[in-house]
Structure to design on (295 residues):
């Protein structure tokens, strides 16, 4: 049976194994506090792939400094002949959830890959994900593992590994977020069907995966590192505080209400989150994440 998502122009992988792949879009967002140097490296990593995108949709989330505009202009010029580089400027900062919602809506192709503005994709990231989509028509989303680093990719800080197969992913989802957001590639039609990205403080992605799982979407992770991710103490600060706990409580309450978790799981999940996000200071919280949530 032919794959319904192989349409029009095809890309071919470099090397001896020359599979045909469907065109796809990359959805990105950049805002004023992003560093131009890191943004430049992130864009370069998705342009120089063994299988490159047909389109990059970049939402500029509010005013950004000239250095960011210079990077955008650089890649707009570089991409003219091979990749459609589309830039959507928002007059004010709307937040990641709103920016990504707009980006997904504007993507031209059924397959959409996410990428953050300060991370580095491995060179065959898209080829790995596209291979899974081509070989498994029922798959709706494919993510992968991440290697975290501080400063440069050589300074490895930790590795976040996630389950590979649908059953394990949905079991993991009952306790924690089962995807590394910056690694995912998904079908646009499915994401739109479940309501697209919706604002939820630091949890826009987890909230989307829960609704996709509830819809019965088929999920997969590659089991390989797809993106090198910058981290620092501020990452652990963002994972604490009452505002973050409130958004986590919303997700747990939603899963309980819709029969995705039991009451015992609900209480257990909230107790763990309250301890880590409210009680623990940032330094201890960072140790807990590195010790128990990373390898």
């Amino acid at each position: 049976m032919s794959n319904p998502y192989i349409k029009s122009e095809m890309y071919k992988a470099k090397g001896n194994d020359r599979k045909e792949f469907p065109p796809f879009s990359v959805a990105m967002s950049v805002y004023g506090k992003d560093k131009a140097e890191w943004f430049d490296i992130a864009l370069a990593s998705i342009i120089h792939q063994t299988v490159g995108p047909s389109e990059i949709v970049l939402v500029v989330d509010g005013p950004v400094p000239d250095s960011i505009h210079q990077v955008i202009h650089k890649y707009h010029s570089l991409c003219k002949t091979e990749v459609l580089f589309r830039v959507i400027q928002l007059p004010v900062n709307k937040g990641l959830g709103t920016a990504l919602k707009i980006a997904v809506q504007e993507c031209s192709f059924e397959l959409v890959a996410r990428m953050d503005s300060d991370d580095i994709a491995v060179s065959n990231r898209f080829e790995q994900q596209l291979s899974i989509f081509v070989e498994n028509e029922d798959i709706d989303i494919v993510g992968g593992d991440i290697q975290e680093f501080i400063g440069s990719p050589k300074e490895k800080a930790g590795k976040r590994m996630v389950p590979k197969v649908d059953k394990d992913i949905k079991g993991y989802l009952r306790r924690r977020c089962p995807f590394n957001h910056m690694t995912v590639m998904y079908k646009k039609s499915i994401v739109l069907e479940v309501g697209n990205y919706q604002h939820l403080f630091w949890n826009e992605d987890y909230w989307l995966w829960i609704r996709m799982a509830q819809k019965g979407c088929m999920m997969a992770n590659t089991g390989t590192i797809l993106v090198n991710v910058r981290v620092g103490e501020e990452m652990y600060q963002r994972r604490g505080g009452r505002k973050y706990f409130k958004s986590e409580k919303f997700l747990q309450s939603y899963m309980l209400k819709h029969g995705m978790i039991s009451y015992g799981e609900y209480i257990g999940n909230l107790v763990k989150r309250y301890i880590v996000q409210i009680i623990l200071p940032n330094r201890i919280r960072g140790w807990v994440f590195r010790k128990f949530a990373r390898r």
